[in-house]
Amino acid sequence: MSKDFEFTVDIVFLGSRRQLQLCVEDSDLVGDVKARLRELGHEPVKLLFHGSALPDVRTLGSLGVGPTAEGVIPSLYCLEAGAETSEARVAKEDREKRVLQVVNLSGGSIHLSVKECDTVRLVKQSLSKTVSLPADHISLLYEGMELTDDIVLFDNAISSVFLLERESSGTSDAELPAVNLVPSEPNIAGGLLDRRIDGLWFRAKVQRMHVLNETCTVDIQYLDDGNVELGVELSECRFLNWPPD
């Protein structure tokens, strides 16, 4: 028979912010942990882990309670009988808040406080107040793909995204403004441009320029995911800064 795995958990009491440590095993039932807390003079009503109440009849191991690969001790939050409901609610809201890094492709970054259950749509609405853009003019990119409004960021382990300003919501190619063609300088390597793909603009940096039979194309590297595209026609681009920094 395999030996039960022993580890330490932090017990944090909601409302009072008191804390203690218990040595437990992964085969311990949640109800057994509550019983041990009662022996220590506490009256636990619920034990919570990652914002969810743990059922008494399940073992800690089956619920994923245990130290991380880096050795970080898990925390169980204890709601005691008689605890102030408002204090418990505030403590739960504090735990559910996360920080999302939003890298603005126009420059700079924003650290936005969001909740675990927030969708991309809610994040855009919060961002619109900070960057002074309508929410439907904001696109959020992750690993080179645009995130749809119904995605819950933290359900998908997304903690950092890129912000791209859209021309307008649902803009078609026919409605897009005329692009800026190649500047008069002979070499545009190092400049920033927007590359149009399916009606959206994606920011990139020019790596090199090619001129053949009076036709000019560029090799570019996208800022959001680092991918490189070769031989892009300038008619699909608009320039942002010239000369390059």
Word description of this protein:
Residues 84-88, 168-186 and 241-245 have low confidence and may be disordered. 14% of the residues lie in helices and 39% in strands. The chain folds into three domains: 7-83, Roll (Ubiquitin-like (UB roll)); 96-165, Roll (Ubiquitin-like (UB roll)), CATH 3.10.20; 173-241, Roll (SH3 type barrels), CATH 2.30.30. By secondary structure, it is mostly beta strands. It is built from three helices and 15 strands. The chain has helices at residues 30-39, 85-96, 120-131, and strands at residues 6-13, 19-25, 44-49, 52-53, 75-80, 97-104, 109-115, 138-142, 145-146, 160-165, 192-197, 200-212, 215-222, 228-233, 237-241. The chain has a five-stranded mixed sheet with strand order 2-1-5-3-4, covered by helices on one side.
